[in-house]
Specification:
Keywords: Amino-acid transport, Cell inner membrane, Cell membrane, Membrane, Transmembrane, Transmembrane helix, Transport. Belongs to the binding-protein-dependent transport system permease family. LivHM subfamily. One of its GO terms (biological process) is L-alanine transport. It contains 10 helices and 4 strands, in the order H-H-H-H-E-E-E-H-H-H-E-H-H-H. It has about 300 residues and is mainly alpha-helical. The protein has a domain of about 210 residues. It has a two-stranded antiparallel sheet with strand order 1-4. A two-stranded antiparallel sheet has the order 2-3. Helix 1 packs parallel to helix 5, helix 2 packs across helix 7 and helix 9 packs across helix 10. The longest helix is centred in the N-terminal third of the chain and has 35 residues.
Length: about 300
């Protein structure tokens, strides 16, 4: 009985960690979709770019401050720098690729195709600039293994889980308590009427990309600290999984994206703990497909009607 309890606790801890990665990326998908009805398929690659930005930022901080600052101080400095620089990448994509199409009134299909091409540009641009060789993320803090109820958890896992819940609470506060959050909800409701009310549409959209891309950069930093091997295509699969998690939760709903990320992680880890790991994605996505078959709008999504 005690062994079963320890195994269950370990399963919960591992699922919470992976769910935190999915949730941090999924909220970026759902923020952009909620405001623009755009599925930003380049978002997984923004996560990858965030991991590489974190690599260079951390390497620079260690070289400049490694002898006088503690490891956690370096992490505290690396987090805002990584989020800021990754947000700049997301805003640049919006300005260069998405805004011209929006101004010309292009069909949403062309915007989605553009998003896919932006993701490929980020992947292959990274490959061309930095090469195909993998990079090892520098170790900023020592890994400390803690025991909770017989289950092992590291300080990095606790950091990842805490960051995900902190981001969710922060986003919930922004969306429900601030003027910009109210503007984001207004744009998602009717983006054509919003400019008539004096709300700067482009400012709201840029703010949305700043939030989504910044949190993707945070996820990239935390992922690189936990699994310190970086390669140009690392964002492809995890990005698709985070998108699926957002859809299952109800894309456009922050709460749905958050819960969908954890739901996918619990299913994946649960399947891998019972069956060979090669069955993990097959069973996980099959279960998610059944969920969408039963509730096509996702767990928290609401069907929208179009008035003619």
């Amino acid at each position: 009985m005690e062994t079963l309890l320890q195994g269950f606790l370990q399963y919960v801890i591992n699922s919470l960690q992976w769910g935190s990665f999915y949730a941090l990326i999924a909220v970026g998908y759902t923020l952009v979709y909620g405001v623009l009805l755009l599925i930003n398929f380049a978002h997984g690659d923004i996560f990858m770019v965030g991991a590489y930005i974190a690599f260079f930022v951390s390497t620079l901080l260690i070289a400049e401050l490694g002898g006088v600052a503690s490891g956690w101080t370096l992490v505290i400095l690396a987090v805002p720098l990584t989020m800021l620089l990754t947000a700049c990448v997301g805003v640049t994509l919006e300005r260069v690729a998405y805004r011209p199409l929006r101004r010309k009134g292009a069909h949403r299909l062309y915007v989605v195709i553009t998003a896919l091409m932006c993701g490929l540009i980020l992947e292959n641009g990274n490959l061309a600039l930095l090469g195909a060789s993998r990079k090892k993320f520098p170790e900023m803090v020592d890994t400390v293994v803690l025991t909770i109820g017989g289950a092992s958890v590291t300080n990095l896992k606790l950091l990842v889980i805490f960051a995900a819940f902190a981001v969710f609470l922060f986003l919930h506060w922004i969306v429900t308590k601030t003027k910009l959050g109210m503007a984001m909800r207004a744009v998602s409701f009717d983006k054509f009427a919003v400019p008539l009310m004096g709300i700067p549409l482009n400012t709201v959209i840029v703010f949305t990309f700043v939030l989504g891309s910044g949190f993707a950069g945070l996820a990239g930093l935390l992922f690189a600290m936990s699994y310190p091997i970086l390669e140009p295509y690392m964002g492809a699969l995890i990005g698709w999984k985070a998108f699926i998690a957002a859809v299952v939760g109800g894309i456009g709903d922050i709460r749905g994206a958050f819960i969908g990320g954890f739901l996918l992680a619990f299913i994946e880890i649960g399947v891998a703990s019972v069956l060979p790991s090669s069955f993990r994605d097959l069973f996980a996505f099959s279960i998610l497909l059944v969920i969408l078959w039963m509730k096509p709008t996702g767990l928290f999504g609401i069907a929208k009607t179009t008035k003619i």
